[in-house]
Amino acid sequence: MSTYRELKLEIEKLVEQAESARLAEKETVLGQICALIVEYRLLPEDLGLESPSRKGPLPARFRDPESGTTWSGRGRTPQWLDGQDRAKYAID
Question: Do 65 and 44 fall within a single domain?
Answer without folding.
Answer: no
